[in-house]
Please model this.
Amino acid sequence: MATVSSIDDLLAQERELLAKLDVVRREIAGIVRLHRIEARTLTPRQRQVLVMVMDGKSNKEIAVALGIGDRTVKFHISRLLLIYAVKSRREL
Model:
């Protein structure tokens, strides 16, 4: 019969393995996202905007850096969300 201590150890090991599995899943999702980027045809400007969004830049920072208007940045981000079928810029 298993002791309470050994059950607690097994549960701790299970939690540890689940945490590692979650890390692997996130890594795989990142790899899949990179392949999606390569597979889709983006305009040069969309690529620039995408890289800046992924770097955590705000719309205003992107607009200033690229010399375009805020509305144009919003348009490009909207298109990127549609292309990648995601709901928020954090998912890009």
About this structure: The CA atoms of residues 46 and 76 lie 6 Å apart.
